[in-house]
């Protein structure tokens, strides 16, 4: 008999796993001060997350089929607990780098099975909504952790805010709940290595999500140092929440639009929202920062994310799993590499110049990708029309 509460319990566990990822984000500048390091080191520690998640997504794609779905979620929750305990016991930029790598491994394990597991737990008539459940729960978690820590820091500076202990409590509860979830599919032999691929026309969508998540990475990893100049570092977690979790509000609209249209709309919003966000951070205008973050989230986790993923799945036909891996490979490259480069420029020329150069690159990239996407979309439409006309002529003969 199917447990009707199982999908909600899995969604809760996924939210707690991703909640831990940005739990320490508002404290990055404090960790850097303790370690005597600058923006580059902060960006490297932040990007250690990607060093954990990418190998799991690329090399262990078949692990869930071998050991089952539930053990993957249990392992991810356990790693999130270890990472939070590490941040509490050894508060420094070095330990945060290790903690974020563990969180990356955990997120990779959860991502490898979350959508499939959710579809197996949902009733057959609702299995198509599995991706929406996973997207909503993880998007909420990624932003909520940073917001909770910022809320705790408003009461005063601390390296062990109450949000850390709250996560440990909720993660322990999630472990108990997940342990009782059913395992609908028996473990089986499967190929472990599933390399990504890029079907014709899909690479442009991968480049779009690379730009979008580069903006998210910059807000999460480097913006706290800019806000600190105006005594606003305690609010950096709310900017992270806005740039990630608020994108959920725009996903219903993104689903109604054609994939290419949704991505083009996101590319139009992205540089404008970043300009407002960066201007607000530089001037100490908190409202502008939060509004810019919400607007950026509509592009990053709304239009570009859902539109791009839907387009890649449509173009992939029989290679959906590998094509999706290729899409997320570029997404996580965007989430890490531009942040490190911007941090290097910030240490060299100052954060104001670094933010300006990032904005110029973001604008140029958005225009180039929009042009390429429009050209590809028009070519596909033309090809479909020619194919339709050819079939019509055959029928008339």
What would you say this structure looks like, in words?
It is a single chain. The protein has helices at 6-19, 28-35, 39-59, 63-67, 69-89, 93-111, 114-121, 130-153, 162-179, 203-221, 223-228, 236-244, 251-256, 259-283, 286-316, 320-349, 351-396. The relative contact order is 0.14. It contains 17 helices and no strands. The chain has two domains: 1-194, Up-down Bundle (Growth Hormone, Chain: A); 195-397, MFS general substrate transporter like domains (Growth Hormone, Chain: A), CATH 1.20.1250. Mean pLDDT is 85; it is low at 386-394. By secondary structure, the chain is mainly α.
Mind sketching the topology for me?
Elements: H1 6-19, H2 28-35, H3 39-59, H4 63-67, H5 69-89, H6 93-111, H7 114-121, H8 130-153, H9 162-179, H10 203-221, H11 223-228, H12 236-244, H13 251-256, H14 259-283, H15 286-316, H16 320-349, H17 351-396
Spatial extent as radius of gyration: 21 Å
- Please count the beta strands (DSSP E, at least 2 residues each): 0
Which architecture of the largest domain would the CATH scheme give at its second level? Up-down Bundle
The largest β sheet comes out as:
none
Through-space gap between termini = 57 Å
Mean pLDDT, to the nearest integer, reads: 85
Structural class, judged by helices and strands?
Answer: mainly alpha
Name the CATH homologous superfamily of the largest domain: MFS general substrate transporter like domains
Q: Could you name the CATH class of the largest domain? A: Mainly Alpha
The percent of residues in helical segments reads: over 70%
Oligomeric composition of the shown chains: single chain
Tally of individual helices:
17
User: Secondary-structure element sequence?
Assistant: HHHHHHHHHHHHHHHHH
Low-confidence stretches: 386-394
Strand fraction: under 5%
Domains, number: 2
CATH topology of the largest domain: Growth Hormone, Chain: A
Q: Tell me the overall shape.
A: globular
